[in-house]
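DM between two lab members

TW: hey, do you still have the CorA-like protein entry open?
JB: yeah, one sec
JB: this one, 317 aa:
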Amino acid sequence: MIQVYKHITGHLEDNISLVTAEKGSWIHVVNPNADDLQLVSMVTEIPTDVLKTALDTEERSHVEIEDEYIFVVINIPILLEKDSYDTLPLGIFITEDFIITLCIEETEVMRTFTENKYPLFSTFKKTRFLFQILHRSASLFLRYLMQINRRTDDTESMLRHSMRNKDFFLLLELQKSLTYFTSALRSNGIVMERLMRMRRNTELYHLLKMYEEDEDLLEDVIIENKQAIEMVEMYSNILINMSDTFASIISNNLNIVMKFLASVTIILAVPTIIFSFWGINTPLPFSANPLGYIYVIIISLIFTFLAFILLWRKDLF
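TW: and the structure you got?
JB:
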């Protein structure tokens, strides 16, 4: 899918054809096929192989600088399903005439711009638009991290009352999400630092015009990204410690149960031994006494009680 957007007199037009796209347009490409990539390459003069790079789900965040364009790849957060998060590469090309974004699927980060909900967003200001995308991505990371933290607290409350496998699998899923976020945030931070260093490069001025407001925005993005890194590290440590703690609790509970069962086994073994002894086919005490059966039961109860007292005093009950 290819969509072309352009701000005209303050209004975001979205019914523009790619072949008629003018300077200052934003070309938004989602899950393109070979024909779409060929058409984008023809209009923007960006090689098809380079365009395909942005569609690789394993592509790491980086910046490539060419004479005709700047290619930026960042990893943005996505919500796969409830309590399951991941990251996805987003390719951003800045040419002298266009800004092009490519992604394998539509994301919440870009939906903010396609629906024109981001303040002071303009397709003409390509550098600022790039930083606004970075800002939106960092803000979404922070929002998802808050959701993960709240879900962790809810899961901890549930585990305090009932330890179910489902809750432990949820902790594992949240831990995986934080691992993905950690990798993405660190690589995104490297990209932002490099973009900040490029602000004084006059050779790139025809592609990356950075004004004072743009520098301030990029600094805010870097701060938010660092904050997100600190939060994800803190939440990861909390999840790891929580998992270890509940694993220790489960092990301790298992030991308590096994200790109780072992004590019960010992208690039941005492009368079993006594009754087995009186069951052998030889003359025994009380064998000729009509009340011998009662005597054997009383003896069994006495020794069972003594065994119980001994185990109780050794804290095995």
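TW: got it. The mean pLDDT is 84. Residues 250-311 form one domain.
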